[in-house]
């Protein structure tokens, strides 16, 4: 039932034309005062195809956020190669949008000003950009909230505004680091459906970090399972469930097999 690929053997496969991200032997060692360093990622190799939905699961401290920060261009790596569209990732790029665990909205700006903030920094707020922001806010159910301030919105609404801020720039790649960790279970389910809808409409590539096995299976084409620190790719699990995904699929046998398998892999790698 579960098609497996070994990421370490995959490295021998030449890149195919639809590969968006390619990571080869990616290693990150954080410098420490005692000079020994913290090895957060060790020899991580994978490809992500254009338009794929990938989730990353692994126990706390295994390097998930480190990997996302390197992909976003916010953090240097120590060894190996990582490319987007064949070009090395070596700094923040408007083609890459990032959504963090907390929405990180600026409290003194309205919702509209917040979602336009990256464009303001780049001095490219055009009427088309404003229109896009407005239509995206409407898409995620925030029509009419553009002039409100973050504190006037619930946690889920703020997180949706954070997603809009990342999407306004129309990035090719959307990186999401535990974006729904702080939300209650029902809001989280709604947000999962929302993300899938946006992904299906826009055909972006999404890399999504989560601690929830169910969330990873529900959303993804493939789930990357990482080992504890130093983070390596333990397995890549292909999720062969039909799309569009619906919440009732969570109760199906196939869904249960996938989540059971991923749980087993994580247990084999230590506590989750
Ligand atoms: N700036 C830093 N300096 C030194 N070590 C760091 C730094 N940032 C992260 N680390 C270490 O690197 C390892 C990986 O951290 P990272 O934040 O990537 O983990 P994570 O998988 O995102 O964990 P969590 O699930 O708790 O968010 C951890 O051991 C952490 O202590
Ligand atoms: Mg993290």
Automatic annotation (TrEMBL):
Pfam families: ABC_tran. PANTHER family: ALIPHATIC SULFONATES IMPORT ATP-BINDING PROTEIN SSUB (PTHR42788:SF13), TAURINE IMPORT ATP-BINDING PROTEIN-RELATED (PTHR42788). Belongs to the ABC transporter superfamily. Residues 21-253 form the ABC transporter domain. The keyword Transport applies. The keyword Nucleotide-binding applies. It comes from Tropicimonas isoalkanivorans. Keywords: ATP-binding, Nucleotide-binding, Transport. InterPro entries: AAA+_ATPase, ABC_transporter-like_ATP-bd, ABC_transporter-like_CS, ABC_transporter_ATP-bind, P-loop_NTPase. This is NitT/TauT family transport system ATP-binding protein. One of its GO terms (molecular function) is ATP hydrolysis activity. It comes from the Bacteria.
């Amino acid at each position: 039932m579960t098609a497996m690929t070994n990421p370490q053997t995959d490295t021998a496969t030449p890149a195919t034309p639809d590969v968006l991200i390619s990571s080869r032997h990616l290693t990150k060692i954080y410098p420490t005062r005692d000079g020994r360093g913290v090895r957060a990622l060790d020899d991580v190799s994978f490809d992500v195809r254009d338009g794929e939905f990938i989730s990353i699961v692994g126990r706390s401290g295994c390097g998930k956020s480190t990997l996302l920060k390197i992909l976003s261009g916010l953090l240097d790596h120590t060894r190996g190669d990582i490319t987007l569209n064949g070009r090395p990732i070596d700094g923040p790029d408007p083609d890459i949008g990032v959504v963090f665990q907390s929405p990180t909205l600026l409290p003194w700006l309205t919702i509209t000003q917040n979602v336009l903030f990256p464009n303001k920094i780049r001095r490219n707020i055009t009427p088309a950009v404003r229109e896009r922001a407005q239509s995206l806010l409407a898409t995620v159910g925030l029509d009419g909230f553009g002039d409100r301030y973050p504190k006037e919105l619930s946690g889920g609404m703020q997180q949706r505004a954070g997603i809009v801020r990342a999407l306004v720039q129309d990035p090719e790649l959307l990186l999401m680091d535990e974006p729904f960790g702080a939300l209650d279970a029902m809001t989280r389910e709604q947000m999962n459906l929302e993300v899938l809808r946006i992904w299906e409409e826009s055909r972006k590539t999404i890399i999504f970090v989560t601690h929830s096995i169910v969330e990873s299976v529900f959303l993804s084409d493939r789930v990357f399972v990482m080992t504890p620190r130093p983070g390596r790719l333990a397995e890549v699990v292909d999720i062969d469930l039909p799309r569009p995904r619906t919440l009732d699929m969570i109760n199906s046998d196939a869904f249960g097999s996938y989540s059971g398998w991923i749980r087993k892999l994580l247990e084999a790698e230590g506590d989750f």
